[in-house]
Amino acid sequence: MKWKLQxxxxxxxxxxxxxxxxxxxxxxxxxxxxxxxDKTVTFRFLSRAAKEVKLNAQFEKAPVAMTKDxxxxxxxxxxxxxxxxxxxxxxxxxxxxxxxxNSAIFPNEGFQNSIVEITGDVPLVxxxxxxxxGTVSYRYYNSPELGTRPVVIYTPPGYEKDSKTxxxxxxxxxxxxxxxxxxxxxxxxxxxxxxxxxxxxxxxMIIVMPYGRAYPVISKSSGSLRNWENLQEFxxxxxxxxxxxxxxxxxxxxxxxxxxxxxxxGGGGETxxxxxxxxxxxxxxxxFAPGMLKNEFDRNNAVAFEDPAKTNQxxxxxxxxxxxxxxxxxxxxxxxxVLDEKKIKHETFISDGGHTWMNCKLYLTTIAQKLxx
Amino acid sequence: MKWKLQxxxxxxxxxxxxxxxxxxxxxxxxxxxxxxxDKTVTFRFLSRAAKEVKLNAQFEKAPVAMTKDxxxxxxxxxxxxxxxxxxxxxxxxxxxxxxxxNSAIFPNEGFQNSIVEITGDVPLVxxxxxxxxGTVSYRYYNSPELGTRPVVIYTPPGYEKDSKTxxxxxxxxxxxxxxxxxxxxxxxxxxxxxxxxxxxxxxxMIIVMPYGRAYPVISKSSGSLRNWENLQEFxxxxxxxxxxxxxxxxxxxxxxxxxxxxxxxGGGGETxxxxxxxxxxxxxxxxFAPGMLKNEFDRNNAVAFEDPAKTNQxxxxxxxxxxxxxxxxxxxxxxxxVLDEKKIKHETFISDGGHTWMNCKLYLTTIAQKLxx
Lengths: 373, 373
Hints:
The structure is a homodimer. Chain A is an alpha/beta fold.
C-alpha cells in the first residue's frame, strides 16, 4: 500500500502546518542542489536501498561517486564550479535519474536531467536580474495535418503596454528530443534577451520557439526519429501554419530583413535547410552546432549552393557556431570548407566545450547582439 | 567516460539524419507511456541493471510489478483505465523515478512524477480540443523582500485581440511543494477554461497562478516547511506586490465581486486564510481539500467567525470540496461542522477519491461554472 501512503498521507502531512509533519514520510528532508557561497555545489540524493550513486554533471568530465550517510542520504560537494547553468543527473545503480528535490527540469523526450545554476560575482547574461522582463507565452496553433501544436513565444519588455510598435522576429529551434520549452528553461532565451535589451546590446525582438517534431504524422512507434521525413512535415507546418499564426497574432515586421532563424543541433539542421532554401523569407540564418551529414550537403543546401553570389547578396548574416569538443565538429568543419570553396559568406564562431546548452546560451548571446542591426 | 558518451555522441547521433544512428546509444528505443486504443496503457522502462521495477500510477491502488524482456526493457500493460490524467512514476529497486521517455512532468519540489492522459471517447473537459485557446503567460514581478517572483497567468481566448474588455480574475493557488506551473501542467486550468468558455459554461476570466513559497525569506535549509511563517510572507507578497502587478498589467475588473480565490491542499489553507480574512478583497472563496488543523480553526478564520452574518452577506460563494478518501477528509468534516454551528453559508462538494490532481481538475471545473455569475 505504498502508493496510498504517498499521495494521501504525504500530501496530508505537507498540507498541515506542523513541524512534526512537515517532512516527507520517505525519509530525512533533503536539500539538493545546494550552491554554496564559495561556488562549490552540494548534491544530495536519498536512497537507503541503492548500492552506488554517482553524480553526472556537465561541469565534470565523468560521473563522480557520492557517499552515503547513516540516514541514507548520498551526497557530494564539488567545485568551485565556473558560474553557468549545468544539466546534471544522479546515476543510481546505473540508472540515470533527475534530482527529485529540484523542480528545475531539462525539458526533453529522450532523458531527464535537472538544472543547477551557479551565479557569478557579477550576474551572467542568463541570470535573472532586476530589469524589465518580457513575457513568455505558451500558445497553441492549429495544423490540419498535425492537430493542435504548442509554441512558446517571447515578447520583449513593454510589448503589452503599447499597441503600435512592430518588432523583428527570431524563430529559434530546439535540438532533437528537446521540446518547445527547452530554449527558455535550459537556454534562458527570455532572460538573455531581457538582460541584453536592458543593456541596449540587443534590439527588442520577438522570439518564436515552436515544437519541432511532426507527431503524430511522423509516428513515435519506431526506433527511428526519421529526421528527414520529420523535417519535410515540420517545414510544411512552419510555412503554412506557424508563420501565419505568428504574423496574424503578434505585432511583427513582415519583411525578410526583420526575420531571423536559428537553431541548435537537429534544430540547427532544420535552420540551415529552412533558412538557405527559402530566399525570400530569412535574411539572418544562424546554426548552433547544426546537425548535418556530409553526403547531404548538396541536397540540404541546394538553393544556396546554386547561386552563391545571390545567396551572399540576400543574407545579412550567415553564422555557424560549434564547440571544439562537439561530436559534430568534424562534419561542420567540412561544411565550412565547402562554404569557403563556394565563396558563400559566413561568420564562424569556434568555442570551447561540446554539444551543450552552456554553448547554446553563448551562441544565442552572441547572435542576439548582431540580429536586425 | 560514460558522461562524454552521453551529451556529446548521444546528441551527435540524434542530430544526424540516419536510421542507424537515430536510436539513443543507451539501449533499444523505448516508447512510454503508450496509450492503446482500448484504453489500456503500456509503460516501459529501460534498465538492464535493475532487479525490480514497479509502476506506481494513481489509477492503481498499489505499485504494480513490471517484467523485463531480454533487451532490458521492463514493461507492463494496465487497464482499460478510466479516462483522465494521472501522475505516475517507476519504482526502480525502491527508488521512485519519473518516466525518462515522457516529457510531461509533474512540476513539484518534493518528488517527480510523470503524467499520462487517457482520452475519452467524448473529449473530457481537460483535453485539448480544437476550440479557441487562451494564452498562458510566464511573468515576473518584483518583491522587495523576496526578489524576482514567478507567476503564471491565463488570459482567455481573444484577450489580445481587443483592448477594451475587462475581465474578472481568479487567483488559483497550488499545493505545498507544487510550483506556479502545477495548475496548468497537471491541473490543465487553461484547457479546462478554454473548453468551458467555448461551451459558454464559464465566464471568460483571467486566472493568476503565483508561486506560493516565500523563499529565500523562509529558507529551504531546514526540514520544516514553516507553513505558517511562509503564509505570513506570502500574504505580504500577495497583497503588496502580486495583486498590484496584476491589476496594473492586465485588463481586470477591480471590484471584489470580480475577484475570486481558490487553492488546493496547502494552497487551500492559504485560500481560506486570505479569502476569509480580507473581507473587502474577495467575494468568491473556494477550498480544494484545503490544508488545516483543528486547533487553528479560530486563528485562521478569525474575521469570518467574528461576524457570520456579515460574512454570509459579503460572500457570493464559499465552496469546499474534498474526496472521501482524502487524508484531510476528517479534519475538513470537523471544519464543515463548525461552519454549520456558526451558520456560515457554504457549499460542500464531497467527491470520491483522495488528495489528487484528478480531483483538483474536477473541483476547478465545478467552481469555474459558478464564478462571477
